[in-house]
Design goal:
CATH superfamily of the largest domain: Butyryl-CoA Dehydrogenase, subunit A, domain 3
Number of strands: 10
Helix content: 40-55%
Low-confidence stretches: 1-7
Structural class: alpha+beta
Number of helices: 11
Mean pLDDT: 95
Largest sheet: 8 strands, mixed
Length: 398
């Protein structure tokens, strides 16, 4: 692996605090996560509990827990640029071992102090996990088709519905559930906080997926699940706006990690292509090898500039709707480019690239889903085209 210093990859104007955060993340990834990748692969993503606890402890010692959350609940209060720098580093590792770093979804920022103390604080201490339940059988990239409902009851609200692909839903203690509150003849999209131990919650399917990750993505049914009157985030009808902010962050995170993935892929593949000889020459000297790698290097550099520009825009308090459109642009570009990069790198490694001990093989499987979850590439194109119409070409490009 290349030993280029973290400072060489910093954008102009990065301050010392951000450099320190970036350095800590890089040392954690290289010293803790990467050495565990092959073991995680052999174990289908499920590392021993003592190893998981060590990852949590090392992450806490490195100051990497709860990056964007308030320090009041155990977070780091990073800027979006600082968060990008960490996500980029995490993207350099495979098998989602970084999921063990104590963290929680961004919507908790809008929760009541009581809910934050009950659920967010222990999540950032690494004691529990949360999960976000939005997707349904007939509602994927289009959340307007959500059929899960909530109605008022004497004790608060009663929720009925079924959610698909609930990432970490197999191990989470609390679920953030998007449901339509039926009230006065209207459907009001609302985020509900649901204790996973409540009666009426059932895991109805827990399918296996292509990647070897630590958590599952089960299908969870809610049958007359009653939550309290205060068990909601963002108020009645506030679900759409909160979800837009959630999608923006998730999509920007996919872009940041995809850039890190391309960095790692190119690092290892270029080193191999320099060393490997065929036909009396290094394989890097053959244009069939070097040109695809050059294309991916250009993709990675362009994607990095786009993504960090959006992060800086968010930190400056720019229009949230514009940021939403541009985050889709970053997610689309990087997720497509990163998977192409992995495919090219597998080809350069030849037969070795088809072995699960090879980083390119693992990334080929893992990066494929980035073109699907948190909105497919096709949905991102729709969002971008709407941004061109509603925000204007100039704002979308500058």
């Amino acid at each position: 692996m290349s030993q280029t210093t973290a400072e060489h990859s910093r954008p102009a104007g990065l301050d010392e605090r951000a450099i320190g955060i970036q350095r800590s993340a890089r040392e954690f990834v290289e010293g803790v996560l990467i050495p565990l990748e092959e073991e995680a692969e052999r174990l289908h993503g499920r590392l021993p509990e003592e190893t998981v606890q060590r990852v949590k402890s090392e992450a806490s010692a490195a100051g990497l827990t709860g990056g964007l959350h308030s320090s009041k609940y155990g977070g780091q209060e990073w800027s979006t640029v600082e968060w990008f720098l960490v996500e980029e580093q995490l993207g350099r590792s495979t098998n989602a071992i970084s999921w063990h770093i104590p963290n929680a979804y961004n919507v908790w920022e809008h929760a009541s102090p009581e809910l934050a103390e009950r659920w967010l604080a222990p999540a950032l201490r690494g004691e529990i996990r949360d999960a976000y339940a939005v997707t349904e059988k007939d509602a994927g990239s289009d959340p307007s088709r959500i059929s899960t409902t909530a109605v008022r009851s004497e004790g608060g609200f009663v929720i009925n519905g079924e959610k698909w692909f609930v990432t970490s839903g197999d191990i989470a203690s609390v679920l953030i559930v998007m449901a339509n509150l039926i009230e006065d003849g209207e459907s009001k999209p609302t985020l509900f906080v649901v204790d996973k131990s409540l009666a009426g919650i059932e895991t109805v399917a827990d399918p296996a997926f292509t990647h070897s990750y630590p958590d599952g993505h089960p299908t969870i049914a809610f049958r007359n699940v009653e939550v309290g009157p205060g068990d909601l985030i963002g108020g009645i009808g506030g679900g759409d706006d909160l979800q837009r902010g959630w999608f923006s962050e998730e999509r920007l995170g996919i872009a940041a990690r995809g850039i890190g993935s391309m960095w790692r892929l190119l690092d290892e593949t270029v080193a191999w292509a320099i060393e490997r000889e065929q036909g009396g020459s290094r394989i890097l000297d053959y244009q069939g090898v070097s040109f695809p790698l050059a294309d991916s290097a250009a993709d990675a550099a362009a994607g990095r500039l786009l993504t960090i520009d959006i992060a800086e825009m968010i930190d400056k308090g720019s229009d949230a709707k514009l940021a939403h459109h541009k985050a889709s642009m970053a997610k689309l570009f990087v997720s497509e480019a990163a998977w192409r990069c992995a495919d090219r790198c597998v080809q350069v490694f030849g037969g070795r690239g088809y072995m699960r001990s090879n980083v390119a093989e693992r990334f080929l499987r893992e990066l494929r889903v980035d073109r699907i979850w948190e909105g497919t590439s096709e949905i991102q194109r729709l969002i971008i085209s709407r941004g061109l119409e509603r925000r204007g070409v100039e704002k979308m490009l500058h």
